[in-house]
């Protein structure tokens, strides 16, 4: 095949000269994937970052691979696709899990051209191109993959915004947990006490409207306090809230019910653009209200009041998904994976503009991944953020069990 070498080399040079992508990290990986997809003429590309635990996660994806953004890669899959010898090699779809294999096939790819990123005796990442037919890779394609792999390797060697995910330090986490807990609990407790003292000391001087407003604020802050305590308890034990009871359920109905029970202020700016029906999802329906509330509250917090927060949903061959879209300040591309880390805040310190313990999105990820799904954030075209949650399809899961494939 004819490879667009000139466009690829000029694109890589421009990548390092650009003030945004030149700093590396996810913006650089994303642009590199688009360049590689065009140069190779393939339908999709992806990068999976590997952890010291032997597992991984898809941190960049383009084209027909974008459905996998944020998806965990299990240790057994990493072990199956990692091979010694030449850094670029062919991987059959049977080496990945059945769900991913079926999804990749349904989107028009037949195998994966994989490049192993080697650095100082370790493999921090894998680069994959999804090949549209059974023909083996030609020398030009192998050369392009080597160039792309060398560029990714350079970004990792210079630690230019990579890795995007970091192993936590238990002692630091415990110290930070105590600091965050004391800071975040203090605010609602102070407000509740202040309004309660006002009612106690000045009941006779307050009119009925002022008393009702004080009671409303106390109730609102009490709800926030209870929710925060639930988050802190769940995060401290490194588990999502409660015991899951997975099974097939109607995601559209669950989303409509959850949206109807959002806080009134948020509900007024929430716009539903849901389909009439979707294939059944497989997971714990009871977790959907908490997950939606976290994502909607996050969108509300970082966007102007006059802008709508939109809820959409859809499906593909193996998953059903929903998205919360806003037109807010957006999230920097290099931060889209950090936001799921425990206690992470985009703006830290006592003077930060937005409150919160940095636990909401962490617990969303934990909750959804315990249901064999995944969650991702990405910048929205035209400004703002897209938060996407994917769950396995319930009908596909039942069919697989019935046929002995699961």
UniProtKB/TrEMBL annotation:
Recorded GO MF terms: phosphorelay sensor kinase activity
Record keywords: Kinase, Phosphoprotein, Transferase, Two-component regulatory system
Reactions catalysed according to its record: ATP + protein L-histidine = ADP + protein N-phospho-L-histidine
Species for this entry: Catellatospora methionotrophica
Cell location: Cell membrane
Protein name (record): histidine kinase
UniProt entry tagged with the keyword Kinase: yes
EC number: 2.7.13.3
Top-level division of the source organism's lineage: Bacteria
InterPro entries reported for this sequence: HATPase_C_sf, HATPase_dom, His_kinase_dom, HisK_dim/P_dom, HisK_dim/P_sf, Sensor_HK_Regulatory, Sig_transdc_His_kin-like_C
Gene Ontology cellular component annotations, sorted alphabetically: plasma membrane
Keyword Phosphoprotein belongs to the record: yes
Main location, first listed in the record: membrane
All residue ranges annotated as the Histidine kinase domain in the record: 180-395
PANTHER family: HISTIDINE KINASE 1, TWO-COMPONENT HISTIDINE KINASE
């Amino acid at each position: 095949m004819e490879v667009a070498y000139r466009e690829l080399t000029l694109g890589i040079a421009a990548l390092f000269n650009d003030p945004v992508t030149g700093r590396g990290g996810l913006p650089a990986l994303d642009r590199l994937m688009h360049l590689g997809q065009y140069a190779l003429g393939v339908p999709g590309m992806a990068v999976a970052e590997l952890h010291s635990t032997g597992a991984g996660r898809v941190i960049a994806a383009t084209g027909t691979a974008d459905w996998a953004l944020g998806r965990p890669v299990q240790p057994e899959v990493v072990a199956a696709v990692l091979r010694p010898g030449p850094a670029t090699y062919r991987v059959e779809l049977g080496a990945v899990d059945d769900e991913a294999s079926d999804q990749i096939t349904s989107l028009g790819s037949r195998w994966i051209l994989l490049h192993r990123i080697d650095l100082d005796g370790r493999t921090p990442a894998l680069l994959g191109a999804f090949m549209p037919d059974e023909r083996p890779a030609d020398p030009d394609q192998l050369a392009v993959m080597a160039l792309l792999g060398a560029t990714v390797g350079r970004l990792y060697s210079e630690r230019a915004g990579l890795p995007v995910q970091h192993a936590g330090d238990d002692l630091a986490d415990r110290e930070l947990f105590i600091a965050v807990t004391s800071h975040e609990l203090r605010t609602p407790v102070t407000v509740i006490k202040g309004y309660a003292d006002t009612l106690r000391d000045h009941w006779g001087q307050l009119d009925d409207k002022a008393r009702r407003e004080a009671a409303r604020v106390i109730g609102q802050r009490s709800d926030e306090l209870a929710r925060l305590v639930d988050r802190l308890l769940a995060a401290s034990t490194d588990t999502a809230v409660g015991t899951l009871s997975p099974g097939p359920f109607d995601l559209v109905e669950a989303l409509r019910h959850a949206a109807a029970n959002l806080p009134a202020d948020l509900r007024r700016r929430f716009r539903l653009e849901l389909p009439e029906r979707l294939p059944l999802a497989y997971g714990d329906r009871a977790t959907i209200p908490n997950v939606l509330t976290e994502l909607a509250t996050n969108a509300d917090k970082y966007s102007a009041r006059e802008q709508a927060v939109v809820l959409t949903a859809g499906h593909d061959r193996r998953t059903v998904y929903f998205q919360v879209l806003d037109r807010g300040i957006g999230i920097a591309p290099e931060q889209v994976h950090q936001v799921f880390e425990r206690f992470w805040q985009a703006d830290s310190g006592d003077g930060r503009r937005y409150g919160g313990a940095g636990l909401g999105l962490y617990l969303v990820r934990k909750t959804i991944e315990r249901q064999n799904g995944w969650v991702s954030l990405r910048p929205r075209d035209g400004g703002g953020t897209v938060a996407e949650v994917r769950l396995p399809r319930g009908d596909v899961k039942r069919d697989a069990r019935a046929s002995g494939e699961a």
